[in-house]
Specification:
This protein is mostly helical. It has one domain. Helix content is 72%, strand content 0%. It contains 3 helices and no strands. Helix 2 runs antiparallel to helix 3. The radius of gyration is 20 Å and the shape is rod-shaped.
């Protein structure tokens, strides 16, 4: 039973560091959104383990969550703008309904 405690702490520390790395990757344009979402999921799993053990890497987890949340909000907004722009243009090649000087 006592052999399981160190391995649980190690998994928690590795999860916190993984959350931090994925959170930083979440700030990358276009490719960052899946990493940011993964960082938020990993953070939730680590936070559950923090209730049982002290997490020395807690600042890394928090930093990862901040980066992931910022990346998710920012790149999600950019993605929505791109989709909105494509829907509004209606496939007219980006002219947005203007005559184009005809």
């Amino acid at each position: 039973m006592n052999d399981d405690i160190p391995s649980a702490k190690i998994r928690m520390l590795k999860g916190s560091l993984r959350c931090f790395v994925y959170g930083l990757l979440g700030l990358i344009p276009l490719w960052g959104l899946p990493f940011a979402i993964a960082a938020l999921v990993i953070s939730g799993k680590v936070r559950v383990q923090e209730k049982s053990f002290w997490n020395a890497a807690r600042p890394y987890r928090i930093g990862g969550v901040v980066c992931a949340a910022a990346g998710t909000v920012f790149w999600g907004f950019i993605l929505m703008l791109i989709i909105y722009s494509a829907v509004i243009s209606g496939g007219s090649g980006g002219t947005y309904g203007m005559s184009g000087g005809e």
